[in-house]
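During the no-cost extension, the postdoctoral fellow (Dr. R.K.) reprocessed legacy sequence entries with the updated structure-token encoder. One reprocessed record is reproduced below for audit purposes.
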Amino acid sequence: MLTKETLEIQQIHQLLTRYNAGKATDQEKARLEEWYDQVEGNTPDLDEKQVVQLRDEIYQALMSRVNLSDEHLANTPPAPVRRLFPVLRWAAAILLLSLASWLFYFSKSDGEKLTSRNNTEIPGNIVPAGNLATLTLANGKTVILNQTGNGKIAEEGNTEIRKDADGKLAYHVGTTGPAATGDLNYNIITTPRGGTYMVVLPDGTKVWLNAASSLRFPAAFTTNERSVELTGEAYFEVVKNVAKPFLVKFSGQTVQVLGTHFNISDYSDEPIISTTLLEGSVRINNRLVLTPGQQLQVDKQGNDKLVKNADLDEAIAWKDGFFNFNESDIPTIMRQIARWYNVDIQYTSTVPTGHFNGKIPRKASLEYVFRILELNGIHCTANGRTITVQ
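Re-encoded structure tokens follow.
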């Protein structure tokens, strides 16, 4: 027999389905947003896991609609926008206030809650990163991938390089020709600040490059190992091949794998280099073997630390479309924002103290990110693409 509380959960799920399909009435949208705004802390008879999951799904739906209104605002005269999106504007306001109280909190090291001065000057024309990358071929020729149509881009030996319809770069290796005889034609794919890209390597291994990163690799793996070189950050899903171990080289380290999923973060402006394993196993510098859920952290002095129960959500949040801050200080937050939105960060005098926890969708405009940060005590002003933190 269904309880009153279970029925309520089902009804909200149904409203969310109608909302995502664009079929919800204004009254149904208001009910959904009201439940989202009021349920936290007022559901003693409901399963907490169900509530959190449902709130997260509603949050995703609200944010996608807010971003949709942003796109229309950029290309539609003001009057029609006001007529078409009154509920979305209201939802955006509710969303921002709810995020401040539920998903995010900002606290100083001594536990004091910071208050908003409501004086952040928010730029409205800075958008999040997209599929932006440059491919450098073995002959030195460069291809700007986001300005190149789908289909065949080039050939390296007997390898055909194609840009697929979904925007990824893929290497298709033949069985004859120079690349099959042992010649290594190295390519480099580079993402700028404000750009990401996915590439499928000649062996089928998938690599997602974060902003301000690069990967150097051969157009065909013809030796007894598959070796690539990384700067910045990337997530790897390596195709298993016992006869040819896969090697990732970066900042004096080498990760050796046979087939596994892992993330490497090696930014020059970050204090820590981290390797995080999600599936399989990896050997680092031919000595330390990681098992799933572990992370190796190495500082600039070469000191290492093994985290046995790493926060995997935080490590790969960027690939899943989120900023995920876990006791992150303001410089850490701002470095990520700088890379993702291609902005420069400066501070008025001293760097504000405190630590921040929570998630922010990476598809959100910088304007929305600033609104959230402002509500949590981080005050910024903008002059073009230079952001000043007060």
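The chain has eight helices and 25 strands. Confidence is low (pLDDT under 50) at residues 40-45, 64-119, 177-182. The remaining legacy entries will be reprocessed before the final report is submitted.
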